[in-house]
Amino acid sequence: MSRVTIAPEEDRLNTQIAFAVEIDKLKRIIRRNLLMDGSRRENDAEHSWYVATLAMVLGEHAPPGTDLQRVTAMLLVHDLVEIDAGDTFIYDPVAVAAQAEAEQQAADRLFAMLPGDQGARLRELWEEFEARETAEARFAKALDRFAPILANHHTEGGTWQLFKVTAPMVLEKVRLIEEGAPTLGAYARELVELSVARGHLPE
Q1: Which positions ≥6 away from 185 have C-beta within 8 Å?
Q2: pLDDT for res 4
Q3: Could you give the CA distance from residue 150 to residue 101 in angstroms, rounded to a whole number?
Q4: N or C: which end of the chain has fewer CB within 10 A?
Q5: CB of 50 within 8 A of CB of 170?
Q6: Distance CA 143, CA 188 (A)
Q7: Alpha helix locations (H) across the chain?
Q8: What are phi and psi of 132, to 5 degrees?
Q9: How far is CA 133 from CA 30, 47, 141, 143, 154, in A?
C-alpha cells in the first residue's frame, strides 16, 4: 500500500489553520469592562481589535520614530495567552500575582502551535509587549491602559463602581500611559479628575 505524502507547504498550511481555529476562542474570554453604551461586557477579541485600531488613530501621539506597524501587531497578539490564562483584572492583586506564570505557560502552548518561524515572531511580539523596554511596547501598553479608562468614563464609572476601584488605583495605571504617550497620559488624568468630580470614581 502506497503512503500519502503531505507536501511541506500543505503541512504548514494545516498548522496555520489549526492555530486560526484555536485563536477564535479569544472571542469567548469576557473582560470586566463594559462597552461604551453600557449594554454588555466586552470580550478579548473586541478589545484587541479596538486597541490595535487606536494605534493607527492615535499614532501621532507616540514618540517620534515609533514603528506603528509593530505596535499594531503587538496589540493584536498581546491577549492571545488569555485563551488559557483568562482575563486578569488589573485591580485584583491576587490575580495579578499569579498572572505571569499562567500566561507564560499559555504562551508556551499557543505559539508552539504555529510553524517555528511564525511562532517565534508572535512570541517575540508578546514578550516585547510584556517587557515594555521599547518605545513600541510602551506605546502599546499605554493604549491598552487608556482604553478601559475611556470606557469607564463613558459608562459613568461602570467597572470602577462595580468593583470599588478608587482614583489612586486608576492613577497608578495612568502612569503607564504617561510613560508610553505623555499626551494620552495627560488626557487620561483629566478623565480621572472629571470622573471624580462627577461622583463616578471615589477618591
Answers
A1: 142, 174, 175, 177, 178, 179
A2: 45
A3: 29
A4: N
A5: no
A6: 11
A7: 8-23, 44-57, 68-77, 82-85, 93-111, 116-131, 135-154, 158-162, 167-180, 182-197
A8: 55, 40
A9: 28, 23, 11, 15, 31
pLDDT tens column, 49-60: 999 999 999 999
Name the residue type at position 79: D
Local structure of residue 166 (DSSP, 8 states): -
**CA distances (Å), origin 107, targets 30, 114, 123, 178:** 19, 11, 7, 28
Tens-digit pLDDT profile for residues 68-118 = 999 999 999 999 999 999 999 999 999 999 999 999 999 999 999 999 999
Bin 202: left if φ > 0, else alpha if -120 < ψ < 50, else beta.
beta
Distance, CA of 144 to CA of 165 (rounded, Å): 18
Phi, psi of 48 (to 5 degrees): -60, -45
Query: And the C-alpha cell for 191?
Result: 478623565
Instruction: Identify the bridge partners of residue 41 per DSSP, sorted by sequence position.
Output: 34
Residue 187 grid cell: 488626557
Max Cα–Cα distance, the chain, nearest Å: 78
Q: Give me the pLDDT at residue 176, please.
A: 97
Domains of the chain plus CATH, in order, are 8-197 (1.10.3210.10)
